[in-house]
Design a protein that fits this description.
The chain has 436 residues and is an alpha/beta fold. Helices cover 33% and strands 24% of the residues.
């Protein structure tokens, strides 16, 4: 028989405090109010004082309401019935479908021991040349997408969700505008990707507390499917909203703030989610791509700053495209030597030439005389930006590599590009009419 407590000693925001015994951290409790029953999670233990977050918000909660601890953490259903469904941050149906209560699993379990992990070795193709050629996404990798408000990062995630060569997509939205939620749902449905996707969506109008559960919901379900042999890609947007929710709860709890008001355990909170990325030996894998918006485009802001110490590189989304300089996939060398013999050479040389193009732009803007080589670089940069760099470009890796060779051959002589003669002989495009 579970004991019922009916003396709430404090209500602060969505956090309530009660005196109780034999209670565990992150344990779930039922709060019975005059308007119904809500769930709450234990977030602090101080002797007999137990602080709980009310998942649906504390509106309507009074000091004499009854609290019953359930002796378990928050749980989510996990089965094939989740596919094609949309849920809230607390796991409730958002799509007017039936509530799922079978095969319940706990949230917030430990990540896999690093010593037991498989070395990442498989590429995930996305159809986006700036990822596939220049910063290949690797199975079981964890990568943030650093961006600012107004950039098309949600459109980029939707593209990846539709095109990535994986078994399952799990999308976690945190603090989304309702229009963004509808965009994800409708886009995935229109392109036939919703049938192998699961969406956990917290909108800006939902209780702040629910935002904190979205990554845990996504990753708990992803882990279960990965253990069943599925290659799962988890897409999260936006981790800055997740961190802001942590900060709001910490302020309510009167915790001593750290850098810019964020809680002192921000790094640990982020790492606990990102470190769920794993390739299970003999089973499937979890790969994480997470948008992190940078207030004021400041990469030293606590959220991107801490994230950079956890993840294996980053993508910078600026000006509507993935920026070649600054973007980095630290694991790309694990896979781009296994794709095609020219992959690494094209990757290296095209980026070098693009850096030279940026210098030529600066030279022109300062009024210096332009050489014939400078003019070739300007033409090369224009072609590179429109035919490879634009997010609208949607071609497989092999065609992207061929397009790279075509751009080079249209502008430069084969002796000007500084690549191995064997590669030039194999891949240099034949000029139209050259056989005549």
């Amino acid at each position: 028989m579970k004991k019922v407590y009916s003396d709430i000693i404090q209500i602060a925001g969505d956090v309530i405090t009660v005196e109780a015994e034999d209670v565990g951290y992150r344990e779930i409790a039922e709060v019975r109010t005059a308007h119904g029953t809500s769930l709450a999670q234990v977030i602090r233990l101080e002797g007999k004082r137990v602080s709980l977050q009310v998942l649906s918000g504390s509106r309507g909660v009074s000091t004499n309401d009854k609290i019953r601890f359930l002796r378990r953490p928050l749980q989510v259903s996990c089965s094939d019935n989740l596919l094609g469904r949309v849920f809230t941050g607390s796991g409730q149906p958002r799509d007017n479908g039936p509530d799922l209560t079978d095969n319940m699993i706990d949230l917030g379990g430990p990540s896999v021991n690093p010593a037991k992990r498989v070395i990442p070795k498989n590429m995930i193709r996305t159809g986006i040349p700036m990822i596939d050629i220049f910063n290949s996404l690797v199975e079981s990798q964890k990568l943030p997408i650093f961006s600012v408000a107004g950039e098309p990062y949600n459109e980029l995630l939707a593209r990846i969700a539709m095109q990535a060569e994986v078994d399952m997509i799990i999308l976690g939205g945190m603090g989304l505008k309702y229009d963004d939620y509808l965009f994800f749902r409708d886009t995935l449905e229109e392109h036939g990707a919703l049938s192998h996707s699961i969406l956990f969506i917290h909108t800006a109008s939902d209780p702040t507390v629910e935002c904190l559960f979205v990554p845990d919901m996504c990753l708990a379900v992803a882990e279960k499917f990965a253990l069943q042999g599925k290659k799962v890609l988890v897409l999260l947007t936006d981790m800055t909203n997740f961190a802001d929710s942590l900060k709001e709860i910490a302020i309510t709890m009167e915790q001593i703030p750290s850098n810019r008001g964020y809680p002192g355990d921000l790094y640990s909170q982020l790492a606990a989610r990102y470190e769920k990325a794993v390739d299970f030996r003999g089973a499937g894998s979890i790969t994480i791509l997470a948008v992190t918006t940078m207030p004021g485009d400041d990469v030293t802001h606590p959220v991107p700053d801490n994230t950079g110490y956890i993840t294996e590189g980053q993508f910078y989304l600026r000006g509507g495209h993935i920026e070649p300089f600054g973007s980095l996939s630290r694991l790309k060398q694990q896979v781009n030597g296994k794709t095609r013999s020219d992959h690494r050479a094209i990757m290296d040389r095209m980026i070098q030439l693009f850096a030279d193009y940026r210098e030529a732009l600066e030279k022109r803007s300062m009024g210096f005389e332009m050489s014939s080589w400078d003019n070739k670089l300007l033409e090369y940069g224009r072609r590179f930006e429109t035919e490879l760099m634009a997010l609208s470009v949607n071609i497989p890796l092999e065609k992207a590599l061929d397009r790279g060779w075509q751009i080079l051959s249209d502008i430069f002589d084969s002796t000007e590009i500084g690549m191995k003669e064997s590669l030039v002989k194999e891949y240099w495009p034949a000029k139209v009419g050259s056989a005549e």
